[in-house]
Q: What sequence folds into this?
């Protein structure tokens, strides 16, 4: 008795026209899809280790995993002589209904995926987006959470984040800030510039490269106006800014250079000036 593989594969299973061969093809395709799903989801999880929090990373990996499994299952179904036309029609109608009902959800989801891979912001960055300024607390699949500088948390849909202009204050390692300092006209501007530079050079977080710049910018109504440009580490610039401003003021005053108050010189006509002096003399005599 000879064993015929072809005859064995063509043995019907008693379920419609499904044979052993059909069942084997279905199992092989599904197992391959399952293996691919595991490999891809594992690589996605590893690639996003430093980009996303654990919960969001696991959620995305599961979406990829089950998406590939469903795709493999749909490809394998025809091996069981299953007619997909009715399923496709029903799925198409259901997809239209769900699509109209969840346009914003899908848009936020897709935008969230783009944000994850483009990586314009990350957790801890100080940003301004959609007129919201603060620190990025969380980047989720559908939304981004920003903690404003006054402690208020704002949830921004990812679609709005992705389509808005994003200002990232700490993406560059260094950030520049500036002062406008006014001194009296009788003060020595060169001495004021020297003192200011000396104070900046002694600060540990004021960067030497790019170098700071101090110069006379313009002549105001009440003062000679100096402009000061200083670079500092992006994550420390605010502390450096507030600290240096006070130290510069103290050092200028210690060297006799003062910041002037607004003042006006008033010129009187000769007749008016004489009358005023006469009135002052009478007041003193009385």
A:
């Amino acid at each position: 008795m000879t064993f015929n593989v072809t005859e064995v594969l063509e043995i019907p299973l008693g379920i419609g026209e499904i044979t052993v061969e059909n069942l084997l093809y279905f199992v092989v395709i599904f197992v391959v899809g399952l293996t691919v799903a595991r490999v891809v989801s594992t690589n996605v999880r590893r690639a996003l280790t430093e980009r996303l929090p654990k919960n969001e990373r696991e959620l995305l990996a599961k979406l990829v995993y089950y998406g590939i499994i469903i795709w493999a299952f749909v490809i394998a179904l025809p091996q069981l002589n299953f007619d997909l036309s009715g399923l496709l029609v029903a799925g198409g109608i259901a997809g239209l209904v769900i699509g109209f009902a969840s346009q914003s959800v899908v848009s936020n989801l897709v935008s969230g995926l783009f944000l994850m891979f483009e990586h314009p912001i990350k957790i801890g960055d100080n940003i301004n987006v959609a007129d919201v300024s603060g620190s990025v607390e969380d980047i989720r699949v559908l939304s981004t959470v920003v903690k404003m500088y006054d402690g208020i948390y704002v949830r921004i849909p990812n679609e709005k984040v992705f389509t808005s202009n994003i200002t990232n204050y700490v993406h560059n390692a260094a950030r520049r800030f500036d002062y406008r300092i006014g001194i009296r006209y009788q003060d020595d501007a060169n001495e004021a510039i020297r003192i200011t530079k000396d104070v900046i050079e002694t600060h540990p977080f004021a960067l030497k490269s790019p170098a700071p710049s101090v110069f006379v910018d313009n002549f105001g109504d009440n003062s000679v106006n100096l402009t000061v440009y200083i670079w500092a580490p992006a994550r420390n610039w605010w502390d450096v800014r507030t600290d240096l401003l006070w130290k510069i003021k103290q050092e200028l005053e210690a060297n006799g250079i003062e910041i002037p108050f607004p003042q006006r010189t008033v010129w009187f006509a000769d007749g008016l000036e004489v009358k005023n002096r006469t009135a002052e003399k009478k007041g003193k005599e009385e």
